[in-house]
Design goal:
Blueprint lengths: L8 H23 L1 H10 L1 E2 L5 E3 L1 E4 L2 E4 H27 L5 H18 L8 H24 L1 H4 L2 H31 L10 H25 L11 H4 L1 H12 L4 H31 L7 H30 L1 H21 L3 H29 L7 H30 L2 H7 L1 H12 L15
Antiparallel strand pairs: 1-2, 3-4
Helix pairs in contact: 1-5, 1-7, 1-8, 2-11, 3-5, 3-10, 3-15, 4-5, 4-8, 7-8, 10-15, 11-14, 11-15, 11-17, 12-13, 12-14, 13-14, 13-16, 13-17, 15-16
Length: 447
Amino acid sequence: MENLQKGSKKLLNAWAFYDWANSVYSLVITSAIFPIFYGAITIIKNDEGQIISDKVQFLGFNLNNDSLISYVTALAFLAVSILSPFLSGISDYVGNKKSFLKFFCYLGAISCIGLFWFSLDYLWFGLLCYFLALIGFWSSLVFYNSYLPDIAFQEQQDKISAKGFSLGYIGSVILLIICLVMILKFEWFGFEDEGLPTRLSFVLTGVWWIGFSQYTYYYLPKGNKKQKITKNVLFNGYKELRKIWNSLTHHKRLKRYLVAFFTYSMAVQTVMLIATYFGIEELNWGDQDPTTGLIVSILLIQLVAVFGATLTSRLAIVIGNIRTLIILNIFWIVICVYAYFIITPQDFYVAAAGVGLVMGGIQALSRSTYSKMLPINTLDTASYFSFYDVAEKIGIVIGMLLYGIVAEITGSVRSSILFLVIFFVIGVILLLRVPKEESIKKDPLAA
């Protein structure tokens, strides 16, 4: 292993390459193949393709399949939101934080491989693997992100971070296409049907994640600081979050914006997480293969998202961040109302394009708006962004729980989508209440 200096091109590229390794989880497991596989296993249809039953038995309960996966997702994000401050508190103090990165990487990747054995007979095992894969992915990012100031100088960080994102997008799309060919053209590879190649996609995801991450591990340093782990260090992350919350009383504008962000973000993230499940259960695909249609939709969302983020940033320059966010929330309301009425795959493609147009934009602009509102003399931006990330994850927990509960009560995923409109409407109202100027600029934490 080479001992590379901070700012070294080889070191920066090795760090960014972890995005290539782990982003396959987001696309294959979260967005594309696993949701389709889960729907195929948990939904019973007749010969005409109409749904007879979407109920599953789990731990003695008879649950809607979408409600069940939303509850497990919410529980996993709750675990991550509790773990994140704990991990953040020790990430800069351990002498070998690379071991923590490896642990959560291997936990997530091995759990992806475990999805190969997902079945209704052993539903608890499959859901446990799904649960642990999510925790492994998000927790590994805590340590991965914490390496950035260690390996890159400030003027290098934006560029190398963007490079990581680009590598992740390219790598995940490559693996998704490989898996898609293997599933749709199963006879080319000697498979009897698409079942086995679909399960092998989960294995490939785990192997890809572990295999390509080795390049990152070879060059990354163990950790820059070596300090004894004490009780104060372990709970430092939680203390920092409490300090940030207390400091918000001095920043009316920032506090009101955070409340607005928390409200509309829980709806945004929920729609993004359940879009594929909605497409599986609510559309009439007819003779068209839903696997192809849904994956095309996912790729469409990602491609349009790049354009949408650029368009949003330009609009914000002209009319301001808050006004742009209000427009984006109104656009989300239109999308959700439209989604309630869609029936055909063509309708779904239109909705997917709409989601892509505002998905990247609202996430990028929300974060940059928050960054601009931070106290001008703050010395602790990391803690402020840790607070932001935890707020976003807790929002996902609430959003997924409410989605599952409404789907269970009404028996309709469409009703859950329509229910989310409430949070976008409240988000618009709260954004309108964000003051244009901040009366107190000084950061009490810097005093």
